[in-house]
Amino acid sequence: MVGTGFIGPVHVEGLRRLGVTVRGVLGSSPEKSQAAAATLGLAHGYPDFSAVLADPAVAAVHLATPNRLHREQVLAALAAGKHVICEKPLALDPAETAELAAAAAAHPRQVCAVCYNVRFYPLALHARALVRRGELGDIFHVHGSYQQDWLLYPTDFNWRVDAQAGGELRAVGDVGTHWLDLVTFITGLETESVVADLRTVHPVRRSPSVGSSETFAGAGAEARGEGRPVPVATDDVGSVLLRFRGGVRGACTFSQVSAGRKNCIRLEISGSRRSLAWNSENPDELWIGERDEPSRLLRRDPALMDASAARYSNYPGGHAEGYPDTFKQMFRAIYTDIAAGRPSPDSPYATFADGHREVLLGAAIAESHRRGAWMPVTASA
Ligand code: SOE
């Protein structure tokens, strides 16, 4: 496990629940590695990344590091023969992600996955099955949002606000990308063009005098910055209109400054036969909208779901499954392929090609905002 911030320990927990041995952890210094190993109860706190790659007992490397480190770490891990599970976004820009997608293709026996965990909410998988079974009819329109509040105040600070560390897009690149990936995953629709309007609400933030605030540090966090003013150019909020291949239209809004919205993904899909709506803050409920009969609320229950989704839902109805379960289920799919010794062709987890597609889409969104015009999502941006 490389990275000891918010998400690294989530990976460790998910892996342990599956019975995957987590060999050790690497932080941003040997001391941080040792401290994280002690906190997480892991045998090894590695001194540096080369020590991780040199360990023959390490089969797979999980990267939960700042985005600027992904390219170099992925390439080194692949060269060392490791499977790679990389946090999203896959890397900083389309040139980097194209290189990583090509590197994954050049190592066909190594599993290369990007952590779009939202796909693994059981009712997201079920929604996908409903679309594939034709139960929505022809899709006309999709809309929704991804909102958080952990960067609401100008004193909230994290490496993600810095374009050098996280990439030029933040609300879009950090959370909007989950929504955009989810739409393609559920509907199979490919985005053809976009028009975007983004805003940096806080062009100056206060960074902590020592270190950096944790993601989701929360109210009253002692790490809340009171120190140095830092100019910020990454987006706090943004809205995007989408045109998909085949004529389907979409609209979405992303924000990390919406008070009270902790981690709220909303998605609604309207088709010629019926609609679906889902909200990650009530992830065990799927609204099925009908025109000529009462609409329904499906509560997650593997016994009532498509087999392709029920496979990734371990608890009976009424026994809530949520955010940490999505990581467990995503790793279940990934480690099934690792055990088989190769990626499978129709895996539900996101591949590096998917990760590249998402970063291309982000580049079109950024360019559209700059130009104030519709932009095609091209293969090379
Ligand atoms: C922070 O916004 C964050 O941790 C994202 O980086 C994750 O991808 C999302 O799952 C929760 O929020």
Describe the overall structure.
With 381 residues, the protein is α+β, with helices and mostly antiparallel strands. The chain folds into 2 domains: 7-117, 3-Layer(aba) Sandwich (Rossmann fold), CATH 3.40.50.720; 119-315 and 352-369, Dihydrodipicolinate Reductase, domain 2. The chain has helices at 8-18, 30-40, 49-54, 70-79, 94-105, 122-132, 163-166, 171-187, 307-310, 323-340, 352-371, and strands at 24-25, 44-45, 60-63, 83-86, 112-114, 139-147, 191-199, 204-206, 229-231, 237-244, 249-255, 264-271, 275-279, 285-289, 296-299, 350-351, 375-376. It has a 9-stranded mixed sheet. Strands 3-4-5-16 form a 4-stranded mixed sheet. A hairpin with a 5-residue loop joins strand 13 and strand 14. The longest helix is centred in the C-terminal third of the chain and has 20 residues, at 352-371. It is globular. The structure holds alpha-L-sorbopyranose. Alpha-L-sorbopyranose binds next to helix 8.
